[in-house]
């Protein structure tokens, strides 16, 4: 039952939400937001779970943000 719930929440509902987001804000903006998702996950892990971070994680996050900005600039 737990595996079913995990699959339902993390796959089916997430995919349906992403598709609805693409319909509402367009594919380019949805792609940019999905690229920022790992940074949000990392920040939540640091703040809520007291995970450790390093300079490599900071540089990786900066590169992700810069790539999302570069894609959105026309």
Topology:
Elements lengths: L1 H24 L1 H23 L5 H18 L2
Helix pairs in contact: 1-2, 2-3
Describe it:
By secondary structure, the chain is an all-alpha fold. It has one domain (2-72). 88% of the residues lie in helices and 0% in strands. It has three helices and no strands. It has helices at 2-25, 27-49, 55-72. Helix 1 (2-25) packs across helix 2. The N and C termini lie far apart (47 Å).
Number of helices: 3
Number of domains: 1
Please describe the biggest sheet, giving its number of strands, its sense, and whether it closes into a barrel: none
Kindly state the mean pLDDT as a whole number? 85
Taking all Cα atoms into account, the compactness measure Rg is: 15 Å
Shape: flat
Amino- and carboxy-terminal Cα gap: 47 Å
Strand-residue fraction?
A: under 5%
Class derived from helix and strand content: mainly alpha
**What is the β-strand count?**
0
Low-confidence stretches: none
Order of secondary-structure elements: HHH
Helix fraction by DSSP (H/I, runs of at least 4): over 70%
């Amino acid at each position: 039952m737990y595996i079913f719930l995990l699959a339902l929440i993390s796959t089916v509902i997430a995919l349906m939400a992403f598709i609805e987001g693409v319909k509402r804000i367009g594919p380019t903006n949805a792609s940019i937001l999905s690229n920022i998702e790992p940074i949000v996950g990392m920040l939540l892990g640091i703040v809520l779970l007291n995970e450790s971070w390093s300079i490599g994680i900071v540089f990786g996050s900066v590169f992700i943000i810069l790539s999302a900005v570069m894609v959105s600039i026309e």
